[in-house]
Design a protein that fits this description.
Blueprint: H1 4-24, H2 29-39, H3 45-56, H4 61-70, E1 84-87, E2 93-94, H5 96-108, E3 115-118, E4 122-125, H6 127-132, E5 141-142, E6 145-147, E7 154-157, H7 163-181
Antiparallel strand pairs: 1-7, 2-4, 3-4, 5-6, 6-7
Helix pairs in contact: 1-2
Length: about 190
């Protein structure tokens, strides 16, 4: 157990790290949260996050909207990439052995997979990277459905697609990622009545 002084000193250092991360990546929550995970003080997350937000302020709403628009994550008239359910697959969190197997497969192809530390010696890997390196690049089309030209995880309706069309592409992507990388992608949207 850390002493009160040690915790206060770590919180002060963490505050500096958060301010620096916010200046470099002002709208990347994942970058800020990773500092908490790495620091090993997850129980203090909520209280410290509130202090940081109160001191530094929230990101400008319009700046966030501009970033989301570049990924077609806003409804924009005339932009067919906006007809999606958003990010369709979760970033897989892998145990050490499974991560090692994945990196060996990637290395055999001359590739390096993006990854991020997760809890309990796990690694989070990029679902977008897995999708794109399984033959489904941004802009991919299959009949009335496809993948957004702006976001590799967004399955889009290219016009008059049915739920069966969307689910068919989802399953095809999951199958290919499983065959090539040995990873089972989990869908992010909650499917109701399907």
């Amino acid at each position: 157990m850390r002493s009160g002084l040690a915790v206060r000193q770590r919180l002060q250092a963490l505050g500096v790290e958060l301010r620096e991360a916010r200046q470099r990546h002002p709208y990347t929550l994942a970058a800020v949260l990773s500092v908490f995970f790495i620091a090993g003080i997850l129980p203090l997350l909520c209280g410290l996050w509130l202090v940081v937000v109160l001191r530094s302020g929230l990101p400008d709403r319009e700046a966030v909207r501009r970033i989301r628009a570049t990924k077609a994550m806003l409804i924009t008239p005339g932009d067919e990439d906006c007809r999606s359910a958003g990010s369709f697959f979760k970033n897989p969190v892998l145990a050490a052995e499974q991560y090692q197997q994945l990196t060996e497969r990637a290395r055999a192809k001359g590739l390096q997979i993006p990854n991020y530390p997760a809890l309990d010696a796990q690694q989070k890997v990029s679902a977008a990277w897995l999708v794109e390196h399984s033959g489904f690049s941004k802009g991919y089309r299959s009949g009335r459905v496809g993948i957004s030209r702006k976001h590799a995880l967004a399955i889009v309706n290219r016009g008059e697609a049915t739920a069966a069309d969307i689910l068919g592409l989802k399953e095809h992507i999951q199958q290919r990622v499983g065959e090539i990388w040995g990873i089972e992608l989990e869908a992010e949207p909650v499917l109701v009545g399907l």
